[in-house]
Amino acid sequence: MGKVMAxxxxxxxxxxxxxxxxxxxxxxxxxxxxxxxxxxxxxVYWPDTPPKLYWDAEYAAxxxxxxxxxxxxxxxxxxxxxxxxxxxxxxxEPGQKxxxxxxxxxxxxxxxxxxxxxxxxxxxxxxxxxxxEEKQGRHGLTxxxxxxxxxxxxxxxxxxxxxxxxVRY
Length: 169
Known about the structure:
Layout: H1 14-19, E1 27-28, H2 34-45, H3 57-60, E2 104-113, E3 124-137, E4 140-152, E5 158-168
């Protein structure tokens, strides 16, 4: 015999309604150095030599960028001296543990890149719960939470936007 699941009206919480569309606290990176970019590129392209755009200032000056830029996947927040606090995501409310029966999945993410990160840049990040969709699925009511993260440089130019999807049923 199959398992009988209780009908749930909605997985949307009051906290989600309050957080929807509201940017959370910002975090700021340390200034990005040429060395940070060079080491990241070496790690990403290992064992091959990374493109000169990421480490050779003389060559990079001849490109459309006019100087060294970071690979798009560069993360200036990769080595924080302190771990950041809770960020908006799928799952239990901040400070709560998942309940038995909570099923939480990573629904993937999409990054869109804009201005390149350059030596000297200070990147600011912020996140928000953008929106959600609820649907009936094979396992009952399922919610897809869309979290948006933006990175801006010190000139307020958009560097990167990430949309992450959390799935809960």
